[in-house]
Amino acid sequence: MLKVESLNVGYGKFHIVFDVSFEVKERSIFTIVGPNGGGKTTLLNGIMGIATVFSGRVLLKGQDITHLPPHQKARLGIGYMAQTDNIFPGLTVIENLLMAAYGLPESVARDRMETVFTYYPVLKRRTGQKARSLSGGERQMLAISMTLMRDPDVIMLDEPTSGLAPILAKDLLKKIAAMRDELKKTVLLVEQNVKAALEISDDAMLLVSGRSEFVGKAQALLSDEALGRKYLGVK
Amino acid sequence: MVLPSFEFLLSSAAAGAALALLSMGVTLTYMTTRVSNFAHATMAITGAVTTLILLDRIFAGFRDSPLYYGLFIVAPIVAALVVGALAVIMYLVAIRPLIRKGTSLIGLMIATLAFDIILNNLLTVVLQLTPAQTVGRLLEANVKGYLVAIYVPLVGYIYPHRLLLPLIALLVAVGLHLFLTRTPFGISMRASIENPQLAKIIGIDIERIYVVSWFLSGATAGMAGSLLAFEMPGISPAAAYLYIVSIFAGSIVGGINSIYGALAGGFLVGSMEAIVPVMLSDLYQLLTGSYVDILRYQRMFSFLLLILVLLVAPEGLAGIKWRGIRRG
Ligand SMILES: Nc1ncnc2c1ncn2[C@@H]1O[C@H](COP(=O)(O)OP(=O)(O)OP(=O)(O)O)[C@@H](O)[C@H]1O
Ligand SMILES: [Mg+2]
Fold first, then answer.
1. Could you give the domains of chain A?
2. Which of A203, B226, B270, B294 could form a disulfide with B16 if both were Cys (CB 3.0 to 4.6 A apart)?
3. What does pLDDT average to over chain B?
4. Domains of chain B: which residue ranges?
5. Closest CB from B190, B204, B206 relative to A91
6. Over the stretch A8-29, which tens digit does the pLDDT of each residue have?
7. How much is the ipTM here?
C-alpha cells in the first residue's frame, strides 16, 4: 500500500534520515519506534512532503508520489496526524473538521463528521467551541478525527498516545487496531509506548540516529532482547 | 474654534476609509505570505491612474451622455480588477520565486521596494504621455466637471461621491467578515494563516490562498486609489512615498496580525491625519491671529498616534482585551 525506498530526508541542509526502506502492507499496522531525536517525525514529514526529500521514492498504491505537494497527497488518501500543532486552535471544532475535508462536497463532509462523532461523542458537544478551549485529551481526539475526515487509505499517526492517561492510551491503541480490523485501514504508527504498540502491530522498524536498525515482524522486534535492552527499555 | 463643517467631516471620513482599505490590504498579504508590501501605495496610485485613463481616454466617447456619470461606478471596479491582477503578477513573478529560494523577510521587503520603484516610474511615464498639461487640470476638467453637488437642508451642499468611499469601505469590511467566517474558502484562509503546514497536511492548497490574498489586497488598493482620484487635486506617483508611511502606520496601529484591526487602525490614522492638523491650525490662528499650514506636517500625527497606541497597547488595537475592559 505504502512503500518507501531508500529515502533520505532532512530540513534544508540538515540530513537527518538516511537510506530508509520499508513497506506498509494493506490493512496492516506498521510501527516505527526508537529513541527521541531519532528522526521518526522527520521520516513521516518526508513521506508527506513537508520535509526535504534528498533522494529515494515514496509509492502509494504503486504510484510515485515522492514530490507531489502535501495537499495532493492528503487528497490521494494519506491522513497524517502530526506530533505537535495538529489542530487549529483559533478555529471552532466544526471548522477544524470541515477544513480537514476541504474540497469534498459539503454533504460528504457532514456525513463523515457524523461518523467521527460516533467514535468521539465528546466532540459533538463541543462543535461550536474554539479548539483552543479543549482539554489535551479532547484535542488529541479532534486531531485523530481530522485525519479520518477524508476517509484515507493510509493513516500516519505520530505519537497519538502522548500526553494521555495510561487507560486512555490503551484504549486509543485498541481503537487504532480497530481502524485496521473494522475500517480496513492501513496504519503507519510512531509510538513511545513501545510494548503496547508492538503488540497490536504487524510489522515494525527501529529507527536510531536516522538509520533503520531493524525492519521486520513486530513480534520479532518485541522478543529481540538485545535491541530491546539497548534502545527501548523493554525487558 | 469654528465647528467642522459636514463637508469637512465627510472628506475626513473618506480619507479614513481609503486608508482603512489600504492598511487592510497590507495586513492581509503580511498575514498570509509574511511579506511587507512596500509597493502597496503605488498600487493604489495605479488604481487612480487607471481611472483617469478610463474616464479621459477609453470612456471619452460617452462624455456628452448621461451614461458618463454611471462610469464613475464602473471605473473603480475596473481599477480593482486591473490592480488585483497586477498584485497577482507581482506575487507570481517577483515574490514567490524568492520565497522558494529561501529569501529572508528583509530580502522580500526589498524586492517589493524594487517592484515599487519600477511601477512608480512606469506610472510617471504613462502620465507624461497623456497630452494634458497637468494631471490636476485633466482631472479638474474631466472628472470634477462631472461631479454634482446636492443641496441638503441644514447641512449645505455635499458631493454624493464623497459618501462612496466610506460606504464601500464598510461594504468591504462586512463582506470580508462574512467571507472569512461563512465560506469554506474564507475559513481555509484563516486556517492557512494560523498554521500553513497543518493546512497543507489536511489537504488545503495554500498556494491558491496566497494568490487570492494578493488579488484581494491589490483589488482593494485599486478600488481605494480609484475613489481617491476623485478626492485628490492631482495624481502624482511620488505621493505614494508619503502615503505608504500612513498605510503601514494604520496596519501597525491595528496590530499587524489582524484584518479587523487594520481596518480600524487605517480608519483612525487616515481620519486623524485629515482632522487633527486642520483643527490645530484653526486653533493656532484663533490664538495668535496668524496662519500656519500644519497640514504639511500631517504625517507627524499618524506617528504620534502610532507611538501612543503602541505604548498603551503593544500589540495594537487588536491586542487589547476589549471584552475584559467591558467587564471591568
Ligand atoms: N525543522 C527542523 N530543522 C532542523 N532540524 C530539525 C528540525 N526538526 C527537527 N530537527 C532535528 O531532527 C532530528 C530528528 O528529529 P525528529 O523530530 O524527527 O525526531 P523524533 O524521532 O521524532 O523524536 P521524538 O521521539 O522526540 O519525537 C533532531 O535532531 C532535531 O533536532
Ligand atoms: Mg517525533
1. 1-77+155-235 (3.40.50.300), 85-151 (no CATH)
2. B270
3. 84
4. 6-238
5. B190
6. 999 988 999 999 999 999 999 9
7. 0.93
